[in-house]
Amino acid sequence: MDNTNFDYLANLYINYYYGSYTHCSANWKEYHAVNSFSKFYYIMEGECELVIKDTAYHGCKGRLFLIPAHTPHSYYHVSDDFVVKYWVHFDVNANDEKFLLNLNLPPYVDVGIDNELIKCFQDIFVQASENTLAATLGIKANLLTLLYKYIYHTGKNDLVMNTKNSRNLYPVISYINSHLQRKLTVDELSSIMHMHPNYFIRLFKKKMGVPPLNYINKLRVEHAKAMLENTSLPISEIMEQVGFNDLSTFSNFFKHYTDYNPRAFRIRFKNNA
Known about the structure:
By secondary structure, the chain is of the alpha+beta class. The protein contains 11 helices and 9 strands.
């Protein structure tokens, strides 16, 4: 990696949303998904198929998949041997909202049953339930370790960043992440980029895959899910942290994106890591 790429990594940003160790049920499937966050799937048992950017890959024991944000993908079982997996949803950027896409990494690596990787996932789940500075730093450290081990297993000694013609949206992405607790408008966000709102919307959708307000809504859902699953905060407090001041409105919003109201989601998913 040349010095230019070292400079590119100087402003590395990484953020965890949520994850778990899951015995997938028969209805584990989704088609043509495009998410504003990235995913790691580490398969411990079973088999499935993942279709990533129109190419099908076999998911099996010891295979670690990386699905960058904004990547079209589908996943589903291919037999009654249902998948058991570690998984996390996260963001990682470095002056570029499509950092992982620009790395041009393969969609999976075969790592076998790696106890160090397993410990990284397990530590993340424990740390996510702790509201401390050490735990927050630990989550970021473990996510970086997962990414490091993934890149190491690709066998590539030099990774060239594909950053041509990439206009930097990092300032507005960072601003969104720091201000989810209040209402955000297109006018406000476009002013950060010194752009006309209409141009900003077109550019944002081109680079992020969705319009800015859709991106914000999905981000709010991910933050709410993370807090419902990994903390004991009252739902009213979670609601306020993701920008709502009315419980009914928040509940309807959350159910629209997840098919669960917040209380039902917490009952179903809390402490299942």
